[in-house]
């Protein structure tokens, strides 16, 4: 099989294009993927030249780009933006996945406009990997939709299960539903209805969802489920609350260790362990969020992504493409009324 | 002014009645409050006798109690439970506040059944203090209502502001709205409408809400607002996600420090600082959640509360009563159509 080609939005992100180009080059040098850079050639060429990669990486021109503070409307306002053209490359079959560190709202809206939904998927969902052990936990939706229908959450269960299978090799992933109590009757109206549907869904479907019931916010890092399905509002709040709390707690630990000469010496002695821990909690290690349910996968890296984060996001995009997550989603969703769109 | 009297549900909580009675005795010995214990005399009397407090603390008999796995229906099924009778004591003016470590759902439902709403309050909200510095951040609602109306969130802004003023001495607290983006248009339908109402509300009312806009999950521990108003589903998910992440991160730090002989020595040298930090993150230090908007305040301690947690919850109940949080809520809400219920 040929190496997957990742269309990289070189202009999206706080540190674009420098960090993005550097990350794409680093990922390609590690091997296993090809990259197409999309953006302003006048800015990208010198960056490639400085790395001795001019001519070694395909470059597709896009003179427009979406600013980090632009939202969903940018998908209409900027039809020739770097993210729009990256999506177009994928739609035309010239690349297998998209990677961007731009504005999440703009990327989601642009991808929805440019890429087809998979049959049986009403709306794409945003999946992130939480740093549980031994395997990560997939949280979906982390904020692609604020007011989903209950049926959409059942689809997200399938998208998240396919992600867990392909990215982490988890056979028959356990699926939990994010709510505010363990019992089926707990939650808001939408989530209670989604619980009913998920409990029924496990009886049928292309590949049945292995639904194990509600999980609470405190269970997200406890490894109680391999996939946690959330409505996007609560999912986004939970994800950001976890990131904020991990950063806050780590800062408090560092301050505590700096609190006395004895504790500073202690921190020095433990510095290797503390550094490993920092890396593990660093969102850059995980590559970013995956927008699933479209004809091709779109990886959204953190807006503040550095070279390391951009490289990890490129690898995640390539891994999901190589593992054929899109085909796995088709299989899980099973035959659908619009089945004529399916490829054999 | 006489000392506030706290009606303590001696039978609620994983470690009831032992830990609850011990905590109530400890809080009373520290001074500044009186306690009435409500529960089974046959179980409570020996615990008081062992502490030399038999006869020194008022005891009100309640032979029934609510199990930790019972929910809201217990409010109807168990009219003579210890939590029901504790609420009744407060309603009759024999105590100023209620403290229970029982099932949150059962306590909220029982309190709503037994205690009047304050004028202008449609539903009580659950407020918790997050460990920010220099002053804590009040999160309301942490899960009393799963499907609130937007108007309810405006009331919660007033309840939370009164809590921040009385408990933490914050003049003119800044109020943020929990959403999934900083801009007013971000969020689900309910939260977007609440944003409009809060932005308008700051122009009028008994005491205006000082609304400073949306905050995100990652801002909850950043001290961007003194009060964060949330719809109860996302508020509960966020609170539990933060608790879970703080525990997870702390466990990872401990494991990292135990990872080698050098790092173990380091941890030993830093043990005082690490112990202080653990106490700061311990929910028991904060006393519990406050159900606000009723004629009297109900404090809900953590179900796993030990003696220390129960004592802190009793003190929080007494502090809010002594600071007259209920009167402050009346003032903030201002004259209301049902104003004949207001006391002068």
Structure commentary:
Two copies of one chain form a homodimer. The first copy, chain A, is an alpha/beta fold and 344 residues long. Chain A folds into two domains: 173 residues, Isopropylmalate Dehydrogenase (3-Layer(aba) Sandwich); 128 residues, Isopropylmalate Dehydrogenase, CATH 3.40.718.10. Helices cover 44% and strands 15% of the residues of chain A. In chain A, strands 3-2-1-4-11-10-5-6-9-7-8 form an eleven-stranded mixed beta sheet, with helices on both faces. The longest helix of chain A is centred in the C-terminal third of the chain and has 26 residues.
Secondary-structure topology with pairs:
Two copies of one chain form a homodimer.
Chain A: E1 5-9, H1 18-30, E2 34-39, H2 41-50, E3 58-61, H3 74-77, H4 82-91, E4 97-100, H5 104-114, E5 125-130, E6 137-140, H6 150-168, E7 174-178, H7 189-201, E8 210-215, E9 227-229, H8 232-257, H9 261-269, H10 271-281, E10 289-292, E11 297-300, H11 307-322, H12 325-333
- What are the segments of chain A in which pLDDT stays under 50 over at least 5 consecutive residues? 337-344
Largest sheet of chain A, in brief, is: 11 strands, mixed
Please report the first level of CATH classification, the CATH class of the largest domain in chain A.
Alpha Beta
Number of strands of chain A: 11
Summarize the structure.
Two copies of one chain form a homodimer. Chain A is α/β, with parallel strands linked by helices.
């Amino acid at each position: 099989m040929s190496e997957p080609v990742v269309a990289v939005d070189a202009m999206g992100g706080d540190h674009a294009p420098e960090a993005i180009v550097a990350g794409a080059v680093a990922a390609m040098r590690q091997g296993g993927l090809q990259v197409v850079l999309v953006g302003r050639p006048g800015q990208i060429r010198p960056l490639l030249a400085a790395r001795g990669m001019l001519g070694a990486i395909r470059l597709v021109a896009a003179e427009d780009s979406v600013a980090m503070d632009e939202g969903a409307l940018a998908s209409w306002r900027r039809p020739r933006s770097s993210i729009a053209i990256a999506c177009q490359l994928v739609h035309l079959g010239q690349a297998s996945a998209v990677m961007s560190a731009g504005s999440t709202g703009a990327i989601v809206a642009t991808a929805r406009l440019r890429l087809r939904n998979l049959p049986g998927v009403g709306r794409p969902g945003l999946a992130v990997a939480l740093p549980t052990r031994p395997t990560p936990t997939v949280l979906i939706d982390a904020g692609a939709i604020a007011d989903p229908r209950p049926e959409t959450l059942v689809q997200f269960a399938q998208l998240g299960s396919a992600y867990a299978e392909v990215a982490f090799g988890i056979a028959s992933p356990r699926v939990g539903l994010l709510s505010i109590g363990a019992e089926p009757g707990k939650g808001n109206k939408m989530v209670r209805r989604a619980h009913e549907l998920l409990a029924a869904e496990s009886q049928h479907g292309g590949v049945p969802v292995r639904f194990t019931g509600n999980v609470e916010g405190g269970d997200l890092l406890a490894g109680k489920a391999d996939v946690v399905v959330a409505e996007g509002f609560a999912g986004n709040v939970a994800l950001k609350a976890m990131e904020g709390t991990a950063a806050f707690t780590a800062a408090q630990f560092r301050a505590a260790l700096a609190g006395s000469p004895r504790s500073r010496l202690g921190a020095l002695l433990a510095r290797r362990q503390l550094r490993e821990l920092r890396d593990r909690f660093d969102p850059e290690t995980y590559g970013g969020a995956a927008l699933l349910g479209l004809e091709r996968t779109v990886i959204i890296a953190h807006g503040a992504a550095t070279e390391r984060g951009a490289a990890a996001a490129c690898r995640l995009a390539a891994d999901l493409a190589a593992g054929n997550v899109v085909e796995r989603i088709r299989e899980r969703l099973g035959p659908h009324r619009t089945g004529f769109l399916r490829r054999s």
